[in-house]
Amino acid sequence: MSIKLLTGLMLSGSLLIGSSVALADDCRYRGVLDDKFCDENYDLVADLPKDQSQWRDPSTLVFTYTPVEDPAVYKDAFSDFQKYLSEVTGKKVVYYTVHSNAAEVEALRSGRLHIAGFSTGPTGYAVNLGGLVPIAVKGTEEAFQGYNLVTIVRKDSSIMKMADLKGKVVAHTSASSNSGNLAPRAIFPALGLTPDQDYEVKYSGKHDQSVMGVLSGDYDAAPVASDVLKRMIDAKRVSEDDFRIIYTSPRFPTSSFGYAYDLHPELVEKIKHAFFSFRFPAEMQKTFGGADRFFPITYKEDWQVIRDIAHSSGTAYTKTGLKQLAEADAAKAAADKRAKEAASKSQ
Q1: Model-level pTM?
Q2: CB–CB of 248/226 below 8 Å?
Q3: What's the superkingdom here (predicted)?
């Protein structure tokens, strides 16, 4: 995808601000949700529109998964679920590849995306600005799948503890990432380490790029999601012996899955049934670290710790915050393109 097209996706409609949506004058409460939505049941997610003419029942459902790593990998990983979702809903289901968190939120808000998985941090943007209603996280019969923030260094590095990162170059992933940016900014100061003050932050764009950057020596260290690191080790992209983990955080929920708030209630019930009755085939379990199903969750309860981290780090799930995220995504994409062009010229 070209940078011009990518930027257009992220910034279309002046990035969410230019869309003219009539506000619900009779909305008694919307909390921190965008003015487009209402939250009269106080569950922190957008209510179904009161006007039934606004309920959508599309003939084709568009599904995607968070662009944390190689999008093609996850398109294949969810192929069996897409088929099952199509069978249960009676509708065609297509996969829409997104290349940034901002573009995914915009696609949901604009109505181009109906069902999606959002990584942990950007889920708040998807809820407040896109109208996402999260219902599930990958998991098992007992619990949802979680992950930790782990700080990695090369095995041969002289860095042995977090205090040793002072004066170093540390890769954060992207502005909206929970484990790759928000959690470190909220947690590390209590460990005596303030990002941007005690060490230089460089954004890698993605967790796997942080891991590979530490391995190649581009960065001295990186906070990354433990589940991403494990998948890379299992796929033999890297070896566990390549790294030393110098910090492990408390456990966070993994990516959320949900639907657009304005889908027809009868369709929503079918979507929920598809999620909660589907069992992951063996290859999908392998891809997702042993998870064998979608485990039910609520945004209000299960994302509380993530909202607390965002609040303590000064992150607001607002249009301004998303605009900053989109600009950072676009800048990173442009830098990646320049790096690839320079590499190809040098060969």
Answers
A1: 0.75
A2: yes
A3: Bacteria
Would you tell me the crossing angle of helices 123-130 and 304-312 to the nearest 10 degrees?
A: 90
Q: 241 and 154 share a domain?
A: yes
Query: If we measure between CA atoms, which residue out of 106, 91, 87 comes closest to residue 273?
Result: 87
pLDDT of residue 14: 43
- 133 and 15 assigned to the same domain: yes
List the beta bridge partners of residue 201. 170
Are residue 268 and residue 278 in the same domain, yes or no?
yes
Domain shared by 274 and 290, yes or no: yes
Pair type for strands 200-203 and 169-172: parallel
Question: Angle CA(273)–CA(274)–CA(276) in degrees, nearest 5?
Answer: 65
Q: How far, in Å, are 71, 102, 252, 332 from residue 338 at the CA level?
A: 21, 21, 35, 10
The answer to whether residues 26 and 127 belong to one domain is yes
The total of other beta-carbon atoms located within 10 Å of residue 344's CB is 8
As given in the structure block, the two tokens for residue 36 are 């487009």
Q: How many domains does the chain have?
A: 2
Pairwise CA distance, residues 36 & 13, whole Å:
15
Q: Chunked in runs of 10, what are the mean pLDDT values of the chain (347 residues)?
A: 40 42 71 96 97 97 83 83 98 92 94 95 95 97 92 97 97 89 92 96 94 97 94 94 95 94 98 98 91 97 90 83 77 69 66
Q: Which domain holds residue 156?
A: 147-252
Q: Residue 130: inside a domain, yes or no?
A: yes
48 and 75 belong to one structural domain = yes
Q: Which two tokens stand for residue 272?
A: 């929920």
pLDDT score recorded for residue 177: 86
Q: Are residues 104 and 66 in contact, defined by beta-carbon separation less than 8 angstroms?
A: yes
Across 44-56, b (16+ Cβ under 10 Å) vs e yields bbbbbbeeeeeee
Instruction: Specify the pLDDT at position 18.
Output: 42
Last residue of one domain, picked from the residues 200, 229, 252: 252
Is 275 among the domain residues? yes
Q: State the pLDDT at residue 162.
A: 97
Position 23 scores a pLDDT of 47
Domain shared by 117 and 181, yes or no = no
